[in-house]
Amino acid sequence: MAKEWQTFVRKFDDLKEGKIKLFIKDLTPGPRKYDTKFVEAQVAKSKEALPDGDLLYIRSESGLKIPHPWYIRITRERPPFVSGKPWEDVFAAVERA
Fold this sequence. Notes:
Blueprint: E1 4-9, E2 18-26, E3 36-44, E4 54-60, E5 70-77, H1 90-96
Parallel strand pairs: 1-4
Antiparallel strand pairs: 1-2, 2-3, 3-5, 4-5
């Protein structure tokens, strides 16, 4: 059974297909639902481009969801935090990680 994940982006155009680092939230029903992970992953807009991928729902900072899910294959889990200052932009900190 495929898992379901969710991620947030500042702008939808910020998310590109290919290898990226991002925070994802587990949406799969069960005891781990809503757990957040920092991962390196392969992402794609279509199932054909990533046939073994899980579903990835993408939302803007304000919570607006794009109409069609993307697909994700996690290649590596990173530590569950990103170094930075409490007031720092999390998206900038992820890019440096």
